[in-house]
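User: Could you write out the 3D structure of this protein bound to heme C? I've included everything you need below.
Assistant: Certainly. Input first, then the structure.
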Amino acid sequence: MGTVMEAPMSNQDKAPAGVLALFDDVDSLLDACRRMRDAGYTRWEAHAPFPVHGLDKAAGIKPTVLPWIVLVCGLTGTGCAMLMQWWMNAHDYKYLISGKPFFSVPANVPVAFEMTILFASFAAFFGMLALNRFPRWSNPLFRMPEFRRVTADRFAIVVDPADPKFHAGAAFLGEIGAKQVLPVPADPSPAKFPVWVHMVGSLVTMAALIPVALIIRAHYVTSPNPPIHVVPDMDFQWKDKAQTSNPTFADGRAMRKAVAGTVSVDADVDPNLLSYQSGKSTMVDATGTTYRTDFPLPVTKELLALGEMKFGVYCAPCHGGSGYGDGPVHQRAMALETAGWIPPVNFHAETSLALSTGRLYDSIVNGVRGNMQSYASQLPTAEERWAVVAFIRALQRSQNASTSDLPQGMQPKEIK
Ligand code: HEC
C-alpha cells in the first residue's frame, strides 16, 4: 500500500487538479485499470512509457466517434463537389465542350474525390483536436517532477476531479496497488490572460485591418497617383494607347489615320446601289416580282476585273468558269450520283439570259429558292456584288456575241 503525500505547492487554497497514482510495473497498472473500470470510475486516464496492449480494454475506453464524423464530413464533401459542379456546369454557366453532356458523373469524379479527401481530413484533424479539448495552454501534471518518470520507467493513473467518485479516489488507488498517490496541484497560472497580452493582441488585430481598409478605400476614392500593381498581369502591354506618341512615325503620333481609301463597314451606302427592285428601268418577272433592269454603276475595266476575281472564287465552283453550270462541285456531285442534287443554273440558257440585273443581284444577297445559299457575307459590299453581276453579263455576251459587238472599225466588211 502506498503513502499519500501533501503537495509541496503554494496555491493550496485552490482545489487539486486531480490525483496521481504511480505504479512500478505494467501488470499492476493493467490490474489497477481493470479495478478502476469495475469500480465505476469514468473520468481518469492511464499513462505508460510505451504502448500497452489491452490497456484500452482494461481501462474500459469506448471506441471514438471520430470515424463517423470523418465519414459524414467526407460524404458532405462528395455532395458539395457534385452540387458545385452541377451548379457551375449544368445550371449557372452552361458551356458546351465537344458536345459532351453538361453534367455527367465520370467527369465529376476527380473534383468529388478531392473534396471528399479534403473534408474528411479536415474532420479528422480538427475533430481529433476538439474531442481531446485541444488546444490546451498548460497541464498541471507537467509541473510535477514525479510525473516525468512516466516517460521512462513509471506507470500512472490520474483521476480527474470531475469524476463522481473522485473523493474516494486517493484511498482506493492505494488499495489497488499504487506505490505512491499524490494530489495534482492546481495550475498556479492565472485563469485570465495578462492585460498586456490583450493590449498587444488588440493592437496587432487592428493593425492587420489597415491594409484591408486601404484596399477597400481604393475601390471608392480617386487619386492622382498611379495605382500600385501588386499583380502586374496584363496591366502593361506592348502596345500604344490612345493619345500617346510613337517615334516610329514621322508625325510622332501613336494613333494612325485610316489608310487612304478605307471604307467603313457601316459607312453610308448609296441606297440606289443596295436596291435591286427599283431603278431607272424595271420589269416584272414570271413570279410577279419587280426587278430593276438597269445597272447602277459605271462599268469600268476595274469593276469587271473585280467581278471576274470574285466570280472565280465564289461562283465558278458550281456555275463553272464560263458559267455553263458545270463547275467542279457539280461534276463531283454527278460522279457520286448524289440523290436530289439540283444542278447549278447555266447562265447561257434562254431563261438565264432573260434574268434582270436586279434578279442576279438578288440571287447573291438572298440565295436562290433555298437551293443556293446567300453569298452576302462573302461579298459584303454592294460594289462587289454589282461587279459580279457585270461579269455574269460579260460572260453571257461572250458566248452569244455577234460581229456588231466588236468595236467600230474592227467589224468585218460585208462579203459580197
Ligand atoms: C454551291 C453551289 C453554288 C455556288 C457556289 C453558287 N451557286 Fe448560284 N446556283 C446554284 C444552284 C444549285 C442554283 C439553282 C437553284 C434552283 O434552281 O433553285 C443556282 C442558281 C443561280 C442563279 C439563278 C437564279 C434564278 O432566278 O434562276 C443565279 C443568278 C446564281 N445562281 C448566281 C450565283 C452567283 C452570282 C454566285 C457567286 C456569288 C453563285 N450563284 C454561286 C448553286 C450555286
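The first strand starts at residue 3 and ends at 4.
User: Perfect, thank you.
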